[in-house]
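We read letters as residues; the fold follows as tokens. A sample entry reads:
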Amino acid sequence: MSTHLILSSVIFVALALILVGVFLLTRYLGPNKTEDKLKNTVYESGVTNPVGSTNIRFSVKFYLVAIGFLLFDVEIIFMFPWAVNILELGFAGIIKMFIFIGLLFAGLIYMYKKKALSWD
């Protein structure tokens, strides 16, 4: 057997034993659960008795705003390295970035036409 295989096996077993040991220590050394009814009640922003059901449906506009945020957040991630290396990329890099920005602008227009950016 290879020494690397033996070493990795020993490390794997040691980590597994340490993990089991940590779980056992927290079980026996940690605080015990108490059957306090006041502690287990719902508390939400000062309201002790929540009103309504927790199974409410959200409007699709919330999801469109979230997707739009991710879309334009990822845009910045791709544009920063381009801006740093603009001289090395040359004219072809500029054309590719304008195509990329155009596609993102088309997504913004789509969101505007679906009225995802306007709130009722």
User: Anything to note?
Assistant: Residues 86-113 form the longest helix (28 residues). Residues 3-113 form a domain with the Methane Monooxygenase Hydroxylase; Chain G, domain 1 fold (CATH 1.20.58).
